[in-house]
Amino acid sequence: MNSLNSMRIAARPLRNLSRGALPAPTTTTTSAQTRQFLLQQHSRRLYSSEPPSQPQSFKKTFSRPIFKVALMAIFTYQLAYYGWKRLEQNETREDLNKIIAQLEQDLAKATIPGMKEDLQDVIDVLKKKELEEREKANQKKA
């Protein structure tokens, strides 16, 4: 307990020193005072003239974690978006295939002379649409 009080007493004269002024040479200068003075000089060299301001300190402390969280959020969003689009594309493709299958069945059952050609044209258009969608999907992948 005594050593703690003596350190507090020894550090008091250093608080009154102005920056850059050397302590007055006295016989009562202790090694603790010298150590404190050297630490002050060292900290001044690190910060050049003054310690960093609050915004600089905040940026230095939190810029990396904020960047990592933002990057993870963007990655997660893109992954969910890609998955959603993929499921939607598969659903659209299944719907088109069902429509094409139904129209082909109707074509097979058709007995009216002009109906077969009309249904065949509709089927051809739908098949073209499906092929275009597949090509677009392949182009996006590449």
Structural notes for this entry:
It is a single chain. By secondary structure, the chain is an all-alpha fold. The protein contains four helices and no strands. The protein is rod-shaped. The relative contact order is 0.05. The mean pLDDT is 76.
User: Helix share of residues?
Assistant: over 70%
Specify the number of helices.
Answer: 4
How much beta, percentage-wise?
A: under 5%
Largest sheet: none
Q: Mean pLDDT, rounded to whole units?
A: 76
What is the oligomer described by this structure? single chain
- Write down how many β-strands occur, each being a DSSP E stretch of 2 or more residues: 0
- Low-confidence stretches are none
Keywords: Coiled coil
Protein name: Inner membrane assembly complex subunit 17
Coiled coil: 86-136
Task: Provide a short characterization of the protein structure.
Helices cover 80% and strands 0% of the residues.
